[in-house]
Amino acid sequence: MGKAFQYSGQVIVYAAIAAFIGYFASRPIYHQFPEGHAQIKLSFAHGAARAKECRRLTSQEIAKLPPNERRPNTCERARIAMHVQLDLDGKIIYDARLEPTGLAGDGPARAYQKFAVMPGPHKLIARLRDSRDTNEFDYETHHEVVLEPGQNLAVDFKSDAGGFIFR
Amino acid sequence: MEIIRASLRSLFDRAERGLGLFFPPHWNPMLNLGALGFYFYWIITVSGIYVYIFFDTGVTQAYSSVEYMTHDQWYAAGVMRSLHRYASDGLILVMLLHIAREFALDRYRGVRWFSWVTGVPVLVMVYAAGITGYWLVWDRLAQYVAIVSTEWLDRLPIFGEPIARNFLSPASLESRFFTLMVFMHIAVPLIALIMLWVHLRRVSKPRINPPRGLAIGALASMLVLSLVHPALSQGPADLARVPGAVGLDWFYLPLYPLLETWPGPVTWGGAATLMLMFCVIPWLPPLRKPPVAKVDLANCNGCMRCFNDCPYNAISMHMRSDGLPFEREAVVDPSFCVSCGICAGACPTATPFRRASELVSGIDLPDMTVAQLREEVELAQTKLKGNARILVFGCDHGVSLKGSENGTVCSVALRCIGQLPPSFIDYVLSKRLADGVVLTGCAENSCHARYGTQWTDARLARERDPMLRARVPRERIRVLWAGRSGRGQLDALLTRFANDLAAMPADASPVHKSAEREASKELIDG
């Protein structure tokens, strides 16, 4: 077999491999989100109230503790579950009871949800209950927004900022 | 498992044959996958260092610095960026083919478990390095990769606050995050390089550099691709928008659509199962290993030929322990030995001419000794008739010798063609046990025991000890490295060779009355 044939064949093989790599390095295009929709992303981490109220230790209980661990109060580690609702245009699209994380159930509860919605004007109400002994929501925030196609609206929560934050 | 292996092997055989039409065996890409992987790694390293000079690790600067490279300095940093990316894709391609081929050729069980298992973390690290690289560009694809990766990690219930919250909105992202990514993108490949060193610990003379012709071809093709179809960013990342349509790199990110849509237990369970499968597959089922090579100190003069030829570092040379006046002795590590017999083929005492004393080689396979081999040769040749009698030495991993035998052709099978001491060819021809000898085995550059065909070629060419004696008529020897699928080639070669032998003058037959005496001299000379 002639050298010319061999070298031509090699060029074709290299070109085919390069074309294969070049194409699959970025094609075919993947559509990961429905076209023409917008997204609402609800995400936060928040620690709810402790399952039991902290109480004062008695003087006998304090005396029993090692000197370097003596303290006036004691608190149960476990936290209660949190109740979260997201209302979109009068329809509840998310309603969840979020358990605390951690082996001892003392970590923050986590929320991370995405919703594909139609663009346009929307009324959102986010509610959260993180306290004991009540059936009322501790936080409720109303927000009106006009969503564009492809827009991502983040719904965060920070108790020290007063509740839900829409951005 | 055997069915899967056989099907894959058949595919690889065809691919090797197809590429063999255009590439000489030592340039065949399919026979240099591991070396090509290393080569791509070095291209990635060099291009990565150049790109890093211009890269900025700020939230907004990352994208603009990559854009500067791609458009303003397209002739240098832009080409390097493309080269970096396409060589990374090439690395994945050759790495996956390398894994599939080693599996197909059953080169992952027995002693070879070590290279297989240590390759698993390399695979994971190459993917991790590539994925972190995509984040750094901070375009829409990077945004998608970052979000899906962190959402997937968050499905493990070990993080207090979701990592994906880092990408919740533009306000939540910090430049320090890019610094971390750059660190990972550099550190992970360096750790992978250390693992690659471990990966090759149990193979001697690993081929980590492709032959020059292949290296030039691979680099040229990647360069041309970089110039013709440069790697481009997909628009700046914007956390206030959803990256709806993305051009995924399907070499690195083919599972991302599944990570995004399938439940966490399924994806994490699937990933864990896949990794576990990769790690335990060398024992599914375990390879039934024949007895390992054994040293007979009474016949070992510590010449080191077996040590030099062993493809798996299974032989080491120790200080003499039996009082004989030699400096060293060979010692076999059973956990490294694959029982290929290449050591026996290298031993100067493994000569069939020995008659005065019992034929015991300095190193040999206990279940397939040189003495047994001589008996087999002598028995096989009794079936031959005519003036074009051919004895074929084949190996267990080359063309099956069954069916090739007839009145003029007989065969003897070996573990590896490298197990054959060259003196056997001299023995067969000088004793007129046959008129011609054919050596056949795995395809060139693709020996199951790594170096059997290469050492045999070198021994026949008198370039490596033990050499084939100069007096042996080369026209009565044929060599065919055709692999398992070379049946047609072998049959054609046998037909042609029989005609050639029949046409040779009878007095050309290598009858040497002093052959035995000379061979004994060779033995003494070592």
Q: What is the gyration radius of chain A calculated from CA atoms?
A: 28 Å
Sheet with most strands: strand arrangement of chain B: 7-6-8-9
H and E string of chain B: HHHHHHHHEHHEHEEHEHEEHEHEHH
CATH H-level superfamily title of the largest domain in chain B: Cytochrome Bc1 Complex, Chain C
**What is CATH's topology name of the largest domain in chain A?**
Immunoglobulin-like
What series of H and E elements makes up the topology of chain A? HEEEHEEEEEEEE
Given the structure, what is the number of helices of chain B?
A: 17
CATH topology of the largest domain in chain B: Cytochrome Bc1 Complex, Chain C
Mean pLDDT across the residues of chain B is: 90
Overall body shape of chain B: elongated
Quickly name the level 1 CATH class of the largest domain in chain A. Answer: Mainly Beta
Total discrete domains of chain A: 2
Q: Biggest sheet of chain B, open or closed, and with what strands and sense? A: 4 strands, parallel
Give me the secondary-structure topology.
The complex is a heterodimer of chains A (167) and B (526).
Chain A: H1 3-24, E1 30-31, E2 38-46, E3 55-56, H2 59-64, E4 73-74, E5 82-88, E6 91-98, E7 109-117, E8 120-129, E9 139-147, E10 152-158, E11 163-166
Parallel strand pairs in A: 2-10
Antiparallel strand pairs in A: 2-7, 3-4, 5-6, 5-8, 8-9, 10-11
Chain B: H1 2-20, H2 33-54, H3 61-72, H4 74-104, H5 113-137, H6 140-154, H7 175-199, H8 212-228, E1 245-246, H9 256-261, H10 264-280, E2 294-295, H11 305-309, E3 315-319, E4 328-332, H12 342-346, E5 363-364, H13 370-381, E6 390-395, E7 409-414, H14 423-430, E8 436-441, H15 452-460, E9 477-481, H16 487-503, H17 515-525
Parallel strand pairs in B: 6-7, 6-8, 8-9
Antiparallel strand pairs in B: 2-5, 3-4
Helix pairs in contact in B: 1-4, 2-4, 3-4, 4-5, 4-8, 5-6, 5-7
